């Protein structure tokens, strides 16, 4: 059977065309002479209106079974729609009901549900307009990520999820444990949960960066795109315990080059998504945040602001605004500071560079002042940090010193140090939090609503 996707019919369908669609009923209405149902198949925000005439086989019986949520297949003829809003509708000839949905218990009613309620029905919430649009935009972003890097000769490398290193050195690791599910010790169990990757400690990765660096020193330009894990017990609207990260790594590239790549990359993604999902993006602008389209335009057409951490601190100290967290050189910027800079002061994305070495990871390249490192964070209006990156320390002796200062053991990172012994080059990279990007693009306020199944301290059920 060749079926049509609704998005294609709405864009290119012609009157009198014979088609078959499959999908889920969004609404059903009855008038005196016939009934309508709106069918959605996930391919677009808009539904296809289907007209059910009383001449249909078992008309009455069908009408009883077709309710919001039911799954159907409809074969019929397209016709010009007299109604407002869409050009085309489907005159049904045959309707098959695959699965009914009891209107007494089906959790989605024809009204606005809160995002909080929708999180409690994570297995069904993507059938709403907003969550459906989020998932389509997410898909378009993921495709644009690959397209950008592939066009520029980057190799996609798959870095491990189980690892023995703590790349960010922040101690926010989930431990990996193996045990026999049928024989879990109930009390005083003998499993040593800290040493159980076949007798040694191992963790879920917080970042694929260190392995990506190894790959960059073969392939010059590489990127990762995969899940990463952070055991931060923080219930905020921007943190997940499991999130997807994109980490490009470029050999023969300094901090300026790193910023240029990050900016070109974000511009490409916004442009592509506006092109591919215009209806979904308009929906976000209308229903979620009326600055979504203006922000996208701003990203695509304006240069990002670039300034050093030290200059940013000076700006914040001069700001005629009282911050909750006091500003002084050396602090880790809080989201209120980041938001002031990009929302109020510059009103566009800001790239901050050269942070104090004490608040950044061991692998960042020490600057000549020996106080700051070649770091760069991209800050976005309403979200704060969406990208963290740096030029990497490529000098063996300096790196060894920095690892020790960070309280880590150089022996554990012997292979990472080897990369500085054999054919070292200046190199740089960054990490983009994929869900923060989707938040930024759609205006969705809570990060739990831009990933199909969020993992947070309060949810791992579905
Ligand atoms: O700044 P981070 O910790 O940097 C790294 O992991 C580096 N290894 C990246 C690199 O240079 N290759 O994380 C990068 C980005 C952040 O800017 C943020 O967007 C996102 O990852 N992120 C999170 N997103 C959701 N939930 C969390 N708990 C996140 N923690 C970081
Ligand atoms: Mg960071």
TrEMBL record:
From which residue to which does the signal peptide run? none
| Compartmental location | Cytoplasm
InterPro entries per record: Aa-tRNA-synt_II (IPR004364), aa-tRNA-synth_II (IPR006195), aa-tRNA-synth_II/BPL/LPL (IPR045864), Asn-tRNA-ligase (IPR004522), Asp/Asn-tRNA-synth_IIb (IPR002312), NA-bd_OB-fold (IPR012340), NA-bd_OB_tRNA (IPR004365)
Q: What is its EC number?
A: 6.1.1.22
Task: Please provide the record's keywords in A-Z order.
Answer: Aminoacyl-tRNA synthetase, ATP-binding, Cytoplasm, Ligase, Nucleotide-binding, Protein biosynthesis
GO cellular component, as recorded: cytoplasm
GO BP term, example: asparaginyl-tRNA aminoacylation
Pfam family of this protein, just one? tRNA_anti-codon
Family the entry assigns:
Belongs to the class-II aminoacyl-tRNA synthetase family.
What does the subunit section of this Swiss-Prot or TrEMBL entry state? Homodimer.
* Protein's name in the database: Asparagine--tRNA ligase
């Amino acid at each position: 059977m060749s079926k049509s996707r609704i998005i294609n019919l709405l864009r290119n369908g012609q009157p009198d065309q014979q088609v078959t669609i499959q999908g889920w009923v969004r609404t059903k209405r009855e008038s005196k002479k016939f009934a309508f149902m709106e069918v959605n198949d996930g391919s677009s925000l808009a539904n296809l209106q289907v007209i059910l005439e009383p001449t249909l086989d078992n008309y009455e019986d069908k009408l009883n079974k077709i309710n919001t949520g039911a799954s159907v297949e409809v074969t019929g003829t397209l016709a010009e729609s007299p109604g407002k809003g869409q050009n085309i509708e489907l005159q049904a000839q045959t309707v098959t009901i695959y699965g009914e949905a009891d209107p007494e218990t089906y959790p989605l009613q024809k009204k606005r549900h809160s995002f909080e309620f929708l999180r409690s029905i994570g297995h069904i919430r993507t059938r709403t307009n907003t969550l459906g649009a989020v998932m389509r935009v997410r898909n378009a972003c993921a495709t644009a990520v690959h397209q950008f890097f592939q066009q520029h000769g980057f190799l996609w490398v798959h870095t491990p999820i189980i690892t023995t290193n703590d790349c960010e050195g922040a101690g926010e690791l989930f431990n990996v444990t193996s045990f026999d599910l049928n024989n879990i010790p109930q009390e005083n169990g003998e499993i040593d949960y800290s040493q159980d990757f076949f007798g040694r400690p191992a963790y879920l990765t917080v970042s694929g960066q260190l392995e990506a660096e190894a790959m960059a020193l073969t392939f010059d330009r590489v990127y990762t795109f995969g899940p990463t894990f952070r055991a931060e017990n923080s219930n905020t609207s921007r943190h997940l315990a499991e999130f997807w990260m994109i980490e490009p790594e470029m050999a023969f590239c300094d901090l300026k080059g790193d910023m240029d790549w990050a900016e070109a990359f974000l511009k490409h993604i916004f442009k592509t998504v506006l092109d591919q999902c215009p209806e979904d993006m308009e929906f976000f602008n209308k229903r979620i945040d009326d600055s979504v389209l203006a922000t996208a335009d701003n990203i695509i057409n304006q240069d990002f602001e670039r300034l050093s951490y030290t200059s940013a601190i000076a700006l914040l100290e001069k700001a005629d605004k009282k911050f909750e967290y006091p500003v002084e050189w050396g602090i880790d910027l809080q989201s209120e500071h980041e938001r002031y800079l990009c929302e109020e002061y510059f009103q566009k994305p800001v790239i901050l560079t050269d942070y104090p070495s004490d608040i950044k990871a061991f692998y960042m390249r020490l600057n000549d002042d020996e106080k700051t490192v070649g770091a760069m964070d991209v800050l976005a209006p309403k979200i704060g940090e969406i990208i963290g990156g740096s030029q990497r320390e490529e000098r063996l002796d300096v790196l060894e010193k920095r690892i020790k200062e960070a309280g880590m053991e150089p022996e554990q990172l012997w292979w990472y140090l080897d990369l500085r012994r054999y054919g070292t080059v200046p190199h740089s990279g960054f990490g983009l939090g994929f869900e923060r990007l989707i938040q930024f693009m759609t205006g969705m306020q809570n990060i739990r609503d831009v990933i199909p199944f969020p993992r947070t301290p309060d949810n791992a059920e579905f």
